[in-house]
Amino acid sequence: VAKVSATGEVYNLKKLSDFSGNYVAGEAGAAVGGGAGAITMKNQHGVVMKLTGVGTGVKFTLAGKGVDVKLKN
User: Fold this and answer.
1) pLDDT in tens, 2-38
2) CB atoms within 10 A of CB 6
3) Do the beta carbons of residue 40 and residue 12 sit within 8 Å?
4) pLDDT at residue 65, rounded to an integer
5) What span, in angstroms and rounded, lies between the C-alpha atoms of 13 and 9?
6) Edge-to-edge strand order for the sheet containing 21-33?
7) Are 37 and 52 in contact (CB under 8 A)?
């Protein structure tokens, strides 16, 4: 997947540059109900994202190598 839309919360972000990085699953993805899915991910800087996506058949899964996240200018 090249693009995913989700909302959530970010924890342990001390400086904006720490947001970019490789995120791996901190907890297994889960179905939330009502067509939503949720996942908790953590990157090499200790930044944690708890995300929820809503849509038909939403299910978050990450490959073993994780997912790269970059801020756009």
Assistant:
1) 556 788 999 999 999 999 999 998 755 555 555 567 7
2) 17
3) no
4) 75
5) 11
6) 7-11, 48-54, 36-42, 21-33, 67-69
7) yes
Q: Is 7:51 a contact under the CB 8 Å cutoff?
A: yes
- Is this structure's pTM higher than 0.85? no
CA dihedral 47, 52, 57, 63 (to 10 degrees): 10
Read off the DSSP letter of residue 31. Answer: E
Nearest Cα to Cα of residue 23 among 55, 73, 54, 4: 4
Q: Which residue has the tokens 């953590």?
A: 42
Find all residues with CB under 8 Å of 12, minimum gap 6, and list them: 45, 46, 47, 48
Q: Which residues of 35-50 are buried (b: 16+ CB within 10 A; e: fewer)?
A: ebbbbbbbbebebbbb
